[in-house]
């Protein structure tokens, strides 16, 4: 007798193969759609892939942990990919040297704005303490943000979701903000989206322009560094100000 | 490809070891990135292999966010309860931080350029 389809799924779901393959298939599909749509920001591939995966897992009753056992191989690559950002950074080194001070000032201002406005608004509108703490590092690249959230008493897995949402939001909206504010320089555009929207913004910037991508990578790296250093000191003070 | 990947992993490993050893508040991969950057400045750039591997990984950087992002399904309950403060905070803070850093950098770098242009 042939096993039922459900049984095959149950068997496959216990091996890492399924989670890994599903992740790549969902992303490939999402990226295909994104390319067909001429890289339209509203069809961000991360957003589409995650939506598809959540639907598939929910409809088949597969627990997230089972899925992640396979998908962790992709997740792991966040580490070496973060290291690899040194290469586009180096490629822009000549231009960077000339504008080091403006970059650092904008970094400090943007980084503070991202963390403090998120914490302040969420707290004032009545989010729980755990959520507020998970929100604080949301503009920072995922491996850093999850570490910072843990230190602050937030929930790393919730932070991962907020980080993803921030990334998608920034990647989707940046173009419209720049149009309204008349920001044309690709270096400036990349820097701002990398600072606010980390890797997803950086990925988007690379698709638009090589220089924008390199500046986005720079902003992402520096903001990760600054936030990791600053937030554990800043937040206890901020917390005492909030209701 | 393998040579490039090995190099990236070695720098990450050194970064992680430094973070543990000196109990730094910064994640290991960021230290690894900093060290690799310094190495590149000293050596005068990456070799073909490393450049190829890095470009390959970074082209699909956003893929790497998908597994953790799918974790949204663990938080449906919390998101249903707190969707309003979380959404408003996310949207406002993201738009604000993009606008602040873009406008500031644009103004400051124009200022710097003007000063350079002056004889």
UniProtKB/TrEMBL annotation, chain A:
The entry's keywords: Membrane, Transmembrane, Transmembrane helix
Membrane-related topology note: Multi-pass membrane protein
Major localization listed first in the record, in broad terms: membrane
Subcellular location: Membrane
Pfam families: LrgB (PF04172)
InterPro entries, per database record: CidB/LrgB (IPR007300)
Segments crossing the lipid bilayer: 12-34, 46-67, 73-91, 103-125, 155-174, 212-235
Protein name, as recorded: LrgB family protein
Lineage start: Bacteria, Pseudomonadati, Pseudomonadota, Betaproteobacteria, Rhodocyclales
Automatic annotation (TrEMBL), chain B:
Transmembrane segments: 27-45, 57-77, 83-105
Organism of provenance: Aromatoleum toluvorans
Keyword terms: Cell membrane, Membrane, Transmembrane, Transmembrane helix
Signal peptide: none
Membrane topology: Multi-pass membrane protein
Primary site of residence: membrane
Protein name (Swiss-Prot/TrEMBL): CidA/LrgA family protein
PANTHER family reported for this sequence: HOLIN-LIKE PROTEIN CIDA, HOLIN-LIKE PROTEIN CIDA-RELATED
Localization, UniProt: Cell membrane
InterPro entries: LrgA/CidA
């Amino acid at each position: 007798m042939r096993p039922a389809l459900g049984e095959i799924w149950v068997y496959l779901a216990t091996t890492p193969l399924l989670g890994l393959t599903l992740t790549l298939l969902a992303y490939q599909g999402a990226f295909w759609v994104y390319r067909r749509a001429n890289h339209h920001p509203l069809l961000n591939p991360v957003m589409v892939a995650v939506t598809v995966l959540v639907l598939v897992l929910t409809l088949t009753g597969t627990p997230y942990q089972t899925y992640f056992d396979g998908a962790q191989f992709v997740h792991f690559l966040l580490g070496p990919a973060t290291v690899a950002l040194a290469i586009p950074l180096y490629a822009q080194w000549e231009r960077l040297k000339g504008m080091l001070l403006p970059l650092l000032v904008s970094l400090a201002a943007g980084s503070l704005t991202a963390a403090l406005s998120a914490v302040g608004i969420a707290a004032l509108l009545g989010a729980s303490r755990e959520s507020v703490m998970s929100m604080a590092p949301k503009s920072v690249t995922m491996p850093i943000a999850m570490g910072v959230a843990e230190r602050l008493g937030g929930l790393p897995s919730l932070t991962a979701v907020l980080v993803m949402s921030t990334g998608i939001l920034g990647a989707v909206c940046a173009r419209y903000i720049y149009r309204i504010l008349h920001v044309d320089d690709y270096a400036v555009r990349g820097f701002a989206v990398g600072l606010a929207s980390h890797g997803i913004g950086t990925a988007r910037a690379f698709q638009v322009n090589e220089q924008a991508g390199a500046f986005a990578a720079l902003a992402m790296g520096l903001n990760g560094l600054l936030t990791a250093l600053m937030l554990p000191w800043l937040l206890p003070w901020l917390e005492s100000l909030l209701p | 490809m393998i040579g490039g990947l090995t190099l990236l992993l070695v720098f990450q490993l050194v970064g992680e070891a430094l973070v543990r050893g000196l109990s730094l508040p910064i994640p290991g991969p960021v230290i690894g990135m900093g060290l690799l950057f310094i190495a590149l400045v000293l050596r005068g750039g990456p070799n073909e292999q490393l450049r190829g591997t890095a470009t390959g990984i970074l082209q699909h950087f956003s893929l790497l966010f998908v597994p953790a992002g799918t974790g949204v399904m663990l938080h449906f309950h919390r998101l249903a309860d707190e969707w309003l403060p979380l959404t408003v905070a996310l949207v406002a803070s993201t738009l604000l931080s993009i606008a602040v850093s873009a406008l500031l950098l644009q103004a400051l770098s124009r200022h710097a350029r003007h000063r350079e242009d002056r004889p």
